[in-house]
Amino acid sequence: MGKNFDGLEKRKYVRLAKPILVNFRILNKKSKEVIINWRDGLSKDISKGGLRIEIYDPNPKFKKIISDPDNVLELNIPLYFQRKATLKGEVEYVHVTGESVWNRKAWDAKEKAETLEIGIAFKRSDNEIDSLITAFITDNLGKK
User: Fold this and answer.
1) Domain annotation covers residue 40
2) Closest CA to 59 of 109, 110, 21, 103
3) Three-state DSSP class for residue 126
4) CA–CA separation, 130 vs 80, rounded Å?
5) The domain that contains 67 carries what CATH number?
6) b/e map of 11-35 (b: 16 or more CB within 10 Å)?
7) Structural domain of residue 110, as residue ranges?
8) Residue closest to 46 by CA, chosen among 5, 74, 79, 68
9) DSSP H helical segments within 2-142, as ranges?
């Protein structure tokens, strides 16, 4: 934390630190040409405004491709809900488009492997998707 951290969240949206296996691909914004086809990433946190994912063994050109402002990400995100009445889980899949706003190399000590973390801002989605993500975060806050 920085010297001036006062304990208050400064982000626009509440973030939930929860690992979720996310499926994504990278497309050219204008032509919709697939630059990198479907692959998996592990979310580190999610909010109504975006998420942070981590990928393993990225293509050497991946960092340049992901940083290109002419490219967008299509993401499929499974959101797991616990239904209190039946104690059964329920999955809602959210399909959303986003843009990489930052990326950095990281190290996974458990796997002993270099990874790439990517901060993704969702392009404005519809109210139903916003509501699902908000409900998922609310449903999972305080759970381990």
Assistant:
1) yes
2) 103
3) coil
4) 15
5) 2.40.10.220
6) eebebbebebebebebbeeeeeeeb
7) 20-140
8) 79
9) 62-67, 127-140
Q: What is the residue-level pLDDT of the chain in tens, covering all 144 positions?
A: 444 444 445 667 888 998 999 999 999 999 999 999 999 999 999 999 999 999 986 677 888 899 999 999 999 999 987 655 555 678 889 999 999 999 998 888 887 888 899 999 998 767 888 888 988 998 888 766
Judge contact between 116 and 63, C-beta under 8 A. Answer: yes
Nearest to 50 by CA among 99, 107, 83: 99
Evaluate whether residue 15 is within a structural domain.
Answer: no
Are 109 and 127 in contact by the 8 Å Cβ rule? The answer is no
Q: How far apart are CA 46 and CA 35, in angstroms?
A: 24
Q: What is the 3-state secondary structure (H, E, C) of 12-48?
A: CCCCECCCEEEEEEEEECCCCCEEEEEEEEEEEEEEC
pLDDT at position 125 is 65
The answer to whether residue 59 is domain-embedded is: yes
Please count the structural domains in the chain: 1
